[in-house]
Amino acid sequence: MEEKIVNTALDNLRKYTGIEGNFTLTRENRLDGKVDFQLPKGKEVFVAEVKREVRNYQLPIIENTARQYKNFLLIAETIFPNIKEELRKQEIAYLDAAGNIFLKTARHYLWIEGHKVEKANIEKANRAFTATGLKVVYLFLTDEHYLNLPQRIIAEEAGVALGNINYIIRGLKEQKFLIQKGKKELQILHKKELLEKWIMSFEEKLKPALHTGNFRFTKTGDEKDWNQMTLKPHETYWGGEPAGALLTNYLQPEVFTIYTSETRNDLIKNYRIVPDAKGNIQVYSKFWKEHDTKNKTIVNPILIYTDLLNTGNSRCIETAQMIYDKHIKQNI
User: How far is CA 3 from CA 65, 69, 218, in A?
Assistant: First the structure.
């Protein structure tokens, strides 16, 4: 995958600018290779990391890597405009598959934008990564044994219509995340990559649909004592920063994420919170069954990890890594 992305990027860079670049795959020091650019004032050599897409939660890690290596270059199939802007602020060189590039060295300054990748084939819609499919994939990620249970049970546990299951499983097979073992047994492949794709897709497709509104505490003191709140068992759970704080004792929450099946009026009555569009309590609909939680107070570590990574906040990302190492890594 890395070489295909790099070759496309360098071919388009050459096509639009005439700049020649040569990529060498090395896999040294956790990076993917190096690129030799032939530029007007001579050759420039960059060490390169290759990704398919770049997301906000990855920026602190990329920035840290760029500090460690002189002439670091990020190459990706897709880099969104807001990410590019942040990379330029940090003077981190990048190149995308369309041939758009930014780099700044002692001898060269180059910034080219506006080119788009020509897609010969439009990617077929994949049911596995729709809002409905993501609920099923979450079930498999949190408890893989459901993968080989009857589709009726999978649908019930994920809270989706039975007719979706076959399409979702087919979609996972098409993207090489599932393999057939024997006549009836399925097994997840590339589980870490599947988790990463779920994290990105959850933030874009499922989480916005789950959002029921923002709230705030009625009293300032209630925010300080948030961890003394008694949440209704089986219905309401902490996610995001408060869940990360309870799981690691490392984070002081600023944004309070709640997943719940309680009504709006019940939330107001039970927790002394009030609706506020700018409030720092973000409420989402609960989308899983009871077994998919860490305990009676916080959601599953995979969902905590996801929420924290997607904040883009460095402290939250540190906490997410602690959770990954202790609670997730052994099952990936």
Answer: 20, 21, 55
* Rounded Cα–Cα distance for residues 144 and 303 (Å): 16
Strand ranges of the sheet holding 256-260, from the earlier edge strand across to the other edge: 236-239, 256-260, 281-285, 211-217, 273-275
Q: How far is CA 275 from CA 94, 225, 241, 283, in A?
A: 42, 19, 20, 10
Can you name the residues that pair with 72 across neighbouring β-strands? Answer: 47
* pLDDT, tens digit (0-9, with 9 covering 90-100), for 291-330: 666 678 999 999 999 999 988 788 898 999 999 999 999 9
Domains with residue ranges and CATH for the chain: 2-112 (3.40.1350), 127-189 (1.10.10.10), 208-331 (no CATH)
Please state, in angstroms and rounded to a whole number, the distance separating the CA atoms of residues 11 and 108.
20
Q: What φ, ψ does residue 29 adopt, rounded to 5°?
A: 50, 40
Q: What is the DSSP string of 254-317?
A: SSEEEEE-S-HHHHHHHH-EEE-TT-SEEEEE--S-GGGBSSSSBB-HHHHHHHHHTT--HHHH
Nearest by Cα to 274 from 208, 223, 225, 228: 223
Tell me the pLDDT tens digit for each residue of 69-80: 999 999 999 898
